[in-house]
Design brief:
This protein is an alpha/beta fold and about 325 residues long. The protein has ten helices and ten strands. The structure holds 5'-O-[(R)-(carboxyoxy)(hydroxy)phosphoryl]adenosine and zinc ion (ZN).
Amino acid sequence: MNILGIESSCDDTSAAVLTSEGVKSNVIASQSIHLKFGGVVPELASRAHQKTISQTVEQALEEASTSLDEIDAIAVTQGPGLMGSLLVGLCFAKGLALSKGIPLVGVNHMDAHIYANFIDYTPEFPFLCLTVSGGHTQLVYVKAPFEHEILGKTRDDAAGEAFDKIGKILGLPYPAGPVMDKLAKEGDPKFHKFPQALANEGLDFSFSGLKTSALYYIQDKDEEWVQDHMNDICASVSEAISGVLIKKLKRAVKQTGVKTIALAGGVSANSMLRSKTQSLAEEMGLNLYSPQMSYCTDNAAMIAITGRMKAELGEFDELDIKPFASI
Ligand code: KG4
Ligand code: ZN
């Protein structure tokens, strides 16, 4: 089955072609317009999607050396995400589906982050997936395809949001997660002990206290000192975030008895989180899966693979499906 995937839930316009041979193209047009605002401006995001969606899809088809005539299904993000952004991708996909008579499959963006693991691998069910992105932080028990139970989630900020907000306080460009990851590699994670909220209770997360704690810590220091200790501060923040994520993951493994764990979402590209997860898997004798870097952050290949899994189960959608902003 040849699938065209389309993703536009936030600030990346993406289109991908997936065939029986694998991912043939995965074009991602990132929006730089938000940089100067230090975060995504929804109205600007939807306008930018409108400008780029057509050429992004064309490029994906071209790079895959294919045309719409050879596409068997169009998979498109239905939600969660920014309503205006979702509408652009969904309307475009519906237009293509209608004009070419191609079946449509609506995809849940959070499911797609999980099933990004199936692009290159075949994780065995049941497994636990730690889904960590800019908008969500979830511990998901994946019993069977599309049979999920959310065991824990954040009560306030998402893990990626914590990286981005603390990075903004530090004067780093948006999104700060990847920048902090790079700087942290040269720093000392034990330089300062930032709080790990709810570390010893349950499976829910909370990151707003960490952000406030970082704000107080940084505003007390002069700018030169902060610049001189940037790597150590980034390493200490990364330690706090990845540390608490791993503690919860370990607790959930013990609680469920799973033998397989997976990472998903933009923050799963974080090197400290990856190495801690690797150590946890070795310590507990678990199989570990994580998508390759380009399939961690928002991309249409993950939408295409999820769409294909749904299509194989016969789960197609009508052309009147609506976007949804939250789960
Ligand atoms: O999954 P994603 O692309 O978009 C959402 O659905 O939110 O995740 C984006 C988030 C941003 O908060 C970004 O800062 C974070 O993922 N991120 C990282 C890294 N790469 C992306 N955070 C920490 N370390 C990274 N290497
Ligand atoms: Zn995402």
